[in-house]
Amino acid sequence: MKKAFLISASIILSTPALAETVVGCAADNPNYKAYMGMTNEMFIPRNGAVAPKFYSEELISHNQDRGGGTAAKVRAAQMNRMYDESFKTFGERSYENELIICQGDYVIARVALTSKMTGPMGAQAATGKTARISATDIYKFKDGKVIERWGNADNVGQLWQLGLQLPPPPPGMADEKK
Prior knowledge:
Elements (H helix, E strand, L loop, with lengths): L11 E2 L8 E4 L4 H14 L7 H4 E7 L10 E4 H14 L2 E12 L2 E11 L13 E13 L2 E9 L1 H8 L16
């Protein structure tokens, strides 16, 4: 039997206006507070140095951003490097929460990212172009820190908007004839 997620009537649910975040979380929810701390201290400025403040020393990542989808153990230091790489490629970026939902140990966030490519991405030179994409992340918290993460972003749409070619698939993702 699948478990349904129900949003409690005691949550705050704001009506969306242009660029207004819809929040389905109690204002005093500790996981919501932790996520907003991540947003303001790490995601917007891309300050990877604070990753250990928000991520457990080791977490499980189901991140789709680099292909795959299998669970992988990731250390907070690796998250720090990810933010550093992002800043080198996208020196100019805005980050907007569009929807945030809290349920039990989980926070689900849909965001809009507008990024200008000011540095190289792998072997591809910076284009100076701007891309706007959406991304959805699900975070599982324990004791105020992320212990598990699922992430999806419109990376293909981003590459198209930036005028870049799709990279080859990661190892294990290549088309295999069966």
